[in-house]
Predict the 3D structure of the following.
Amino acid sequence: MHHLDKKDGGFNYKATFLLSLAYLLYGMLRKAVPVSTSLLIQEMNFSKADIGLISASFGVGFGLSKLIGGFLCDIYSCKKILTLGLCTASVSSLVFLLIESNRSLSFRLVWLWHGFAQGVGWPAIASLIYDNFDSVGRGSVWSLISSVSYYIL
């Protein structure tokens, strides 16, 4: 088991900050569809059913990748999985915003991929929490990281 530099009596502030930042960024990237919903309906004439299908495609990708992400974290570096997931989610958010087609299938496919990129993040974060904190501090760090995007976003 590897540990990041521990300071101040064993509490790892650096890891807590970095994991909180990663989860916050994931939370911010999830906002592309909710923020653009009215634009998709007004400017691109999408129906509410289209918006529902786009949103649902995220859930499918997210659910599948959480399972796969756990296996990937057992095989590869969790830091690399976390970074790759954040980068992929960032790119898919940009692609989502740049799609000029008025076909909801394009949006669904990109948002499915975005959900997949988002889903690998939590298993990586969970594994990094386990690796970098002892059993006494794990619960506090877990709750802090889990709630950070709700308070800021």
Residues 59 and 66 are 11 Å apart (CA to CA). The helical segments are 13-29, 32-42, 48-75, 78-98, 104-119, 121-132, 135-152.
